[in-house]
Write a structure and sequence with these properties.
This protein is an all-alpha fold and about 70 residues long. It is built from two helices and no strands. The longest helix has 22 residues. The protein is elongated, with a radius of gyration of 23 Å.
Length: about 70
């Protein structure tokens, strides 16, 4: 019984460290969000990997992004 309690305690500390520590999952997501948003915005603006499925996956010819209205 003592061995199981020790293993459970170690597992609990590791899991808490993953979610609450200085290099936790949430910190990683918070730091990666601006970079991901910039990449998505660039890809949408330039039409990166915009394909016409009717033509067998070839890139849509003459595709131009719509103007940005601020």
């Amino acid at each position: 019984m003592t061995l199981e309690a020790i293993i459970l305690a170690i597992f609990g500390v590791l899991i808490l460290g993953i979610f609450l520590g200085p290099n936790s999952i949430m910190v990683t997501f918070d730091e990666a969000t601006p970079r991901l948003a910039a990449r998505v915005e660039r890809n949408v603006t330039t039409g990166f990997r915009f394909y016409d499925p009717r033509s067998g996956g070839s890139r849509t010819p003459g595709w131009k992004p719509s103007p940005v209205n601020n």
